Structure to design on (940 residues):
């Protein structure tokens, strides 16, 4: 509450946080109204992960105002900072640091104005919920009631010009001074959503709104031969749009739009694209290439191991294509006003979408405005941007009228980008003491980034279907650069101290199915493979899997998180019955998995307890996590729990299905996800690290959860399944061989 | 060929006359004709539970319920769970447990849970899980959601205990049930408080 420290500048200005350096103007982030309400504009968006609440907490602490005094504005391109994508578990680290510094500086400016206007003695100044209170500079310290003076942020706002750049000269609060950060503040958006009030983009109803539907091709890269657009005609149909292979309708009513789209679909003739690969032979397809080599690490050579290798192991692992499978189909709304278009989207990056729309249509970016509206959970690059562009194309046929486009469940499961299939080969040598002497790792995958703007292309689905497609020749998905954690090779580098290692990525230069970023990108596969193989090595070395890991780990935070998960998961108390020695009746197993996300983010270790009788069931996941300073403990728990449950679903059940012509997993029966009756108990322990920088929690649990489950299944049954998902069919097949 | 008909149904206690085609879905009528947006579209095939409403007390997918089948029925949507400005005990419990991430699935889950508690006020955990098994949640909030339903049941149990004493003090089973639930609730609250205090102290 005391202001004396914040009013005192740093001796030397600190470097501005990255997001603030890119958007230094204070007024872009904060404004204060005469009634004392504080408006905060951030570039990060709510995806169900609670980021808006966490950033409001940071702002409240630095400004010394109650949370109720803060209004968070959804990201949009008309105002506020451009903070790029809400992705990669970077929002708390990047946006949090920026908001912290901005609010510390705004507070210092308001306090300085109060000190000057009221002739206050700075050392006596305190701020509580936007009220600045202190004693006049000439008064005897604190005993003369008449000398006490106060003002409010609201009264001072008009006198403080925030239209200036951040300087870095004000020191934000230290961990000990925080009141709101570190507490489990309830999410700001949940009361509306739990009451059933309109809050999602699906609920958006603008004046004069029409409803659009797109008729997608029956298969990837199928082309439209001919269509009788008259088939869609009807009293409620406003327009039929055809541009190359892009086909859609606009109607006055959502039901009429669906019926017209179905009629149009029936009147369209398509020519199939090239055949899809054999779904049952994806690892070979990926290895056959062509591929681009990515050298991740070549420190030492496997041949030149320091200690003689006495035992050598090798194994291959794989994962299928995975769908985002959000509970809501993607949705977008657009309205053309003369030559400008207004867009509403649940995109992860409103600025990137704006630039992509402009590029696809040959517009200037200032002709496009994109506003974020909440959608259902987003776990990466889903169909949000595509649905927005669908709306833009359809709305062009009805100038001045907003067009609301909602995808079908089938479109969502078959046309949104997938998380790409991956294959891994790993080989290691053990020395006589049972330590890893060398390590060789290869991962094959399509690139994991085809978002709007990546590889210099719009990256919008419908743009590739236009008569003049943009781009004419779509590039294959790329990978984020190593500085942002890579894509296919994300977490391909183990944190373990191996003396010699060779780690290579192989990016496939083919696009059988559209692939892009799905929560944790390559880390889910790589951590599953590395941590599975660590267990295989531990078994070969005759060591306990936990001890084997600890013997190769020097990072104290890594060791602590593993030990904490082991304790929470009763690792040391597990019966010797675990494993192949257990006998046929006892099919319970424990497994452990660990990673530090992107090698620089959250540390996470998971102990899984599974039973494998007729099918694999996960009884319990015990998870320890270190995310540095915690902004909202319950928010972190929610992200870790949710990430672990979703990863359990990926690990046990999920696989995009396709034949040689088209994607066939088009509904919840053909693409099943985890049900309530299959969800494990999840216990989460957060390690206290108040003095370490905050890092994101959203993707930390994915890989370790899969690995812990895989290892637990191997412990329970004595056989290892190396290809995800770990279905009953795969487990039975492993038992048979 | 206008095949429109007029259907009468009760929604959240109000009588409505709706004129539409007989195969128009109840979900469409709720969201567009009655402007009740709380019921969500998820799949259109009755497979995910996002669009559940109570039809004569039963959780029912409104996305594939045609109006000819809904006519004459009593429908309760998520908006109808609250008692005026007072949220339903389930909605309070969901907020207390922060039992959601994106919350798109929550309307339908609240409907399933409300039907369960109406039928069985003091369910155990397996009963809650079974009652919600037709509802999907992609964010992985299921552990919290189950805790929230159990919490709401406990809160209702406390209310029931008061009622029981006032109206009928011979229902030994209900009392025993209530005692158990109370004990659990307090232990749970203690655990959570302790845990959060630890967090604060650590920070």
């Amino acid at each position: 509450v005391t202001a004396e420290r914040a009013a005192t500048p740093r001796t030397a200005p600190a470097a501005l946080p990255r997001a603030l350096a890119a958007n230094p103007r204070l007024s872009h982030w904060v404004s204060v109204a005469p009634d004392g309400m504080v408006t905060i504009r951030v570039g990060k968006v709510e995806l169900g992960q609670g980021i808006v609440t966490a950033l409001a907490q940071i702002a409240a602490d630095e400004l010394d105002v109650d949370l109720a005094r803060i209004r968070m504005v959804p990201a949009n391109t008309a105002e506020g900072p451009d903070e790029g994508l809400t992705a990669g578990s970077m929002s708390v680290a990047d946006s949090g640091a920026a908001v912290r510094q901005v609010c510390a500086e705004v507070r210092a400016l308001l306090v300085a104005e109060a000190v000057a206007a009221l002739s206050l003695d700075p050392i006596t100044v305190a701020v509580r919920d936007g009220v600045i209170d202190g004693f006049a500079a000439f008064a005897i310290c604190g005993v003369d009631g008449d000398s006490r003076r106060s003002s409010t942020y609201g009264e001072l706002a008009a006198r403080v010009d925030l239209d200036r750049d951040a300087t870095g000269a004000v020191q934000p609060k230290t961990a000990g001074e925080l009141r709101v950060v570190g507490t489990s503040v309830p999410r700001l958006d949940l009361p509306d959503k739990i009451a059933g009030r309109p809050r999602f983009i699906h609920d958006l109803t603008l004046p004069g709104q029409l409803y659009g539907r797109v008729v997608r091709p029956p298969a990837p890269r199928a082309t439209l031969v001919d269509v009788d657009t008259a088939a869609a005609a009807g009293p409620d149909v406003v327009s039929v749009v055809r541009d190359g292979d892009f086909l859609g309708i606009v109607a006055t009513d959502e039901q009429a739009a669906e019926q017209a789209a179905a009629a149009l679909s029936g009147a369209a003739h398509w020519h199939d694209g090239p055949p899809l690969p054999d779904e049952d032979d994806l690892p070979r397809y990926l290895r056959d290439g062509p591929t681009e080599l990515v050298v991740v690490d070549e420190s030492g050579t496997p041949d030149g191991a320091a200690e003689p290798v006495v035992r050598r192991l090798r194994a291959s692992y794989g994962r299928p294509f995975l769908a985002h499978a959000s509970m809501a189909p993607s949705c977008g709304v657009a309205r053309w006003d003369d030559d400008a278009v207004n867009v509403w989207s649940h995109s992860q990056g409103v600025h990137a979408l704006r630039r992509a729309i402009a590029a696809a249509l040959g517009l200037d970016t200032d002709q496009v405005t994109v506003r974020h509206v909440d959608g259902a959970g987003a776990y990466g690059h889903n169909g949000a941007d595509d649905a927005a562009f669908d709306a833009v194309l359809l709305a062009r046929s009805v100038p001045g009228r907003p067009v609301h486009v909602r995808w079908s469940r089938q479109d969502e499961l078959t046309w949104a980008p997938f998380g790409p299939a991956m294959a891994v080969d790993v080989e290691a040598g053990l020395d006589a003491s049972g330590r890893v002497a060398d390590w060789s790792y290869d991962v094959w995958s399509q690139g994991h980034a085809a978002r709007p703007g990546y590889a210099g292309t719009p990256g919008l689905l419908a743009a590739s279907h236009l008569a003049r497609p943009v781009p004419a020749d779509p590039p294959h998905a790329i990978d984020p650069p190593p500085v942002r954690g890579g894509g296919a090779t994300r977490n391909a580098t183990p944190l373990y101290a191996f003396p010699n290692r060779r780690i290579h990525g192989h990016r496939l230069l083919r696009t059988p199915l559209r692939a892009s970023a799905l929560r944790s990108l390559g880390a889910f596969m790589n951590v599953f493979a590395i941590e599975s193989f660590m267990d295989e090595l531990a078994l070969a070395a005759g060591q306990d899997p936990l001890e084997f890991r600890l013997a190769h780990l020097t990072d104290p935070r890594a060791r602590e998180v593993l030990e904490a998960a082991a304790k929470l998961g009763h690792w040391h108390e597990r019966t010797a019955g675990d494993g192949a020695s257990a006998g046929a009746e006892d099919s319970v197993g424990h497994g452990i998995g660990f990673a530090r996300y992107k090698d620089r983010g959250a540390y996470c270790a998971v102990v899984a307890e599974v039973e494998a009788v007729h099918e694999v069931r996960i009884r319990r996941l015990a998870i320890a996590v270190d995310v540095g300073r915690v902004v909202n403990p319950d928010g972190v728990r929610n992200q870790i729990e949710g990430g672990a449950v979703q990863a359990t679903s990926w690990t046990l059940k999920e696989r995009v299905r396709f034949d040689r012509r088209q994607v066939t997993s088009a509904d919840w029966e053909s693409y099943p996800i985890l049900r309530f009756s299959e969800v494990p108990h999840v216990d989460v322990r957060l390690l206290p690290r108040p003095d370490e920088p905050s890092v994101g929690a959203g993707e930390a649990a994915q890989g370790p959860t899969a690995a812990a489950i895989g290892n637990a299944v191997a412990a329970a049954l004595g056989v290892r399944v190396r290809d995800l998902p770990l279905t009953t069919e795969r487990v039975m097949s492993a038992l048979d061989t | 060929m206008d095949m429109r008909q007029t259907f009468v149904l009760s929604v959240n206690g109000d009588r409505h006359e709706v004129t539409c085609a007989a195969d128009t879905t109840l979900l469409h009528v709720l969201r567009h004709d009655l402007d009740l947006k709380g019921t969500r579209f998820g799949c259109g095939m009755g497979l995910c539970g996002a669009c559940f409403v109570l039809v004569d007390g039963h959780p029912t997918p409104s996305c594939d319920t045609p109006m000819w089948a809904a006519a004459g029925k009593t429908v309760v949507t998520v908006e109808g769970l609250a008692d005026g400005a007072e949220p339903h005990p389930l909605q309070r419990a969901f907020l207390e447990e922060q039992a959601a991430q994106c919350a798109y699935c929550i309307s339908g889950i609240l409907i399933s849970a409300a039907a369960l508690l109406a039928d069985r006020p003091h369910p155990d955990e397996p009963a809650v899980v079974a009652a919600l098994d037709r509802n999907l949640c992609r964010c992985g909030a299921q552990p919290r959601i189950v805790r929230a339903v159990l919490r709401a049941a406990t809160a209702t149990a406390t209310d029931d205990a008061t009622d029981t004493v006032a109206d009928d003090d011979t229902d030994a089973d209900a009392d025993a049930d209530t005692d158990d639930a109370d004990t659990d609730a307090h232990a749970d609250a203690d655990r959570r408080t302790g845990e959060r205090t630890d967090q604060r102290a650590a920070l």
In short: Residues 1-7, 580-585 of chain A have pLDDT under 50 and may be disordered. The CA atoms of residues 528 and 627 of chain A lie 21 Å apart. The radius of gyration of chain A is 28 Å. The first strand of chain A starts at residue 30 and ends at 32.
